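User: Hi! I'm working on a homework problem where we have to compare a predicted structure to a textbook description. Could you give me the structure for the chain below?
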Amino acid sequence: MNRYVLIGLVWMLFVAVSPVQAHAVDDPVHRAELEQQIAVLLKLIAELQAQLATLQNTTTDAVHTQSAVEIELGYEGSYRAQYEVERGGELSLMSGVKDRQDAELWQLFRTVAGEEFALKNVRELWLFESELSSLAAFVAPRWREAPSWVVAINVEDIDLRHEADLYYVMDTFTHETAHLHSLGEDEADLTYDPSRCRTFFAEYVCLHRDAYLYDFITAFWDDDALAYASNTRAFDEYYEQQAFIEAYYDQHPNSFVSTYAATNPLEDLAESFTVFVLASSVEGDTIAHEKVNFFNEYPVLVKLRQEMRERQQAYIRKHTLQRWSKVGW
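Assistant: Happy to help. Predicted structure tokens:
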């Protein structure tokens, strides 16, 4: 508690009880009156402490969310709109300008991630515009409550009326859904203090020892690879960072499903999981193939894959029929 608040409370206590102290404390009437006043003040202190904690949590939530966002969005770009997700799933504009396809983007995410999962975990949808092609989207935790996440997508030149853009966004949301599952409360604890983590500290979470991301890292990222991943954060310039990652990928082309997967273990898992969900089957003997097939060892992820594929296929069929109906088919 703020020391000035405490000083004020002590002064209030002194002013309130000093008249009573003039009487003998052995007097039962005055003792009862003193105890009653002390009880009232203690209740007031508790209420003020609760209010102060709420204010501190609100401030911490804003600071930590922004810090997590800066991890991802440390480059040029601007937010076009920021929405809060209300209890029923509707979007409420907090800042920025609405666009005709914002609601469809949110509905598409709910389709990819699953209605129940999306509404349970996502509290805000942020839309930004950046010419950086590799910055397609990101997720970041809000810290006031868990599970509680921000999902953001780069809407630069995105038009969901175009089939290529629709598929691109669905692939991107599959990737971000992988992050939400692998970094969620069942798999990790939110923390900004790496010293408290005894397994693996991943951006803003400490992985549980039985987390599948921890298994993935143990299986595919040795100490040298982890040291490389740490070094990707050392670049101030985006293009220098990308050149560093591309050079590492070129040295290990059979170890990753994409160049972006070579960024760090989190992106490696999300990219590999995206292929796991979207590919009909994966056959091969490279490390990249092993990473995709890694998820078959977890029944919960096999089930998740099937559910995500079914939802996306249904959405595509519906979207295609709507598109055909508009051109007279």
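For your comparison, note the following. Residues 1-7, 13-24, 54-76 have pLDDT under 50 and may be disordered. The longest helix spans residues 28-72. Good luck with the assignment!
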